[in-house]
Design a protein that fits this description.
Blueprint (H helix, E strand, L loop, with lengths): L2 H32 L4 H4 L1 H24 L1 H21 L3 H29 L5 H30 L3 H20 L4 H5 L10 H22 L2 H7 L4 H29 L1 H20 L6 H15 L1 H12 L4 H30 L1 H25 L14
Length: 391
Amino acid sequence: MSAHWRLACGWITLFIVGTDLFVISPLLPAIAEEFRLSPAAAGLSVTVFSAIYLLSAPVIGQAADRLGRRRVLLCCLFGFAVANLLTGLVTGFTLLLIARFCAGAATAGVSPLIYAGVGDAAPPARRATWMGIAVSGLLLALSVGAPIGTILASHWGWRMPFFVMAALSLVLIGANRLVWPADIRGRAGAAIALPTLGVTAAAVRLAPTVLWATALYAAYTYLGVWLTGAGLSPTKVAWAIGFYGAGALAGTLLGGHMADRFGVEAAKIVSLAGLGGCLFVLAVGVGTGWGAVLVLLVLSVFAQLFFPAQQAGLARAFPERRALILALNNSALFLGISGGSLIGGEAMTFAGFGLDAGIGAGIAGVGLVVVVVTRHAGIGKSAPRGPGDPR
């Protein structure tokens, strides 16, 4: 099967998974109304999903490295289909939380394994570019998949998007079984010895993901509150978030190309420096109204240069434990998102968005220092550079 078919299948799979992740937010009011809950209480469904994702990803990555990636991926896709079907069938909020718990666990296996498969399929000199394309499927779900799900819900109720995703997931099982190669390790079981994943090397390589996500989501979580407080109407706030999403998509694709052309470490340095600089601009109050929206657009481009470069670097550095390290990277992402929203909330309560953005700029600066220091010291590198594989 052509490598390009694998990339296309991976992109579509991440688009469906991303739609499940993002569509829940616009559906929360309808869910809260049906189960007679406050919106905050209904939001527990998102918290449960994120928490189990963070905890499950490393376990599933370990299993995939031992039992075979395709086998575990297909099992997770089946679990994802069942979880979405159950989400649409629930008759109470407790059952909804259980269904979202199962969806989070299944998604924790799907996303990293798709990234690992795309990393395997990609030409070494274009690995970061292919990673960026794959991640764009997840990001496009925010601006395309979630709105489509919302439209379906407006006509047939909030349950319909989950029924559709359950059906599409069954199709994806067949497609992914067809495009990905059979598992050599899966046929041999656990008898094949796996190299140990060094704790120090992994921690050093994953620390920038935590710092990047913390810096970014400390500010992003409260963009709507800040923009509304700055006097933008709900329509203008929606446009501002749309511009941010467009910048994120462009940054992801550009980040892959930049990492392949100049090296993954260079792309991460540019990303963290640009993210920190833009957050500092927001912190000191430069830019109001649409001027602030322009800063957000630039910020999102710089910010999203990071992730495909980091994914490609990890895939290259830990080739025999690729599923596990990319799963850990996704857990590091969710850890940063959780920490960022917590830090941002405290900063907003204490002194408003200026302090929030300033703290984010400082955290991005720490991430930049970590990347620069480890780059020059050669810390955390566990695989030699391959032909056409940019360092």
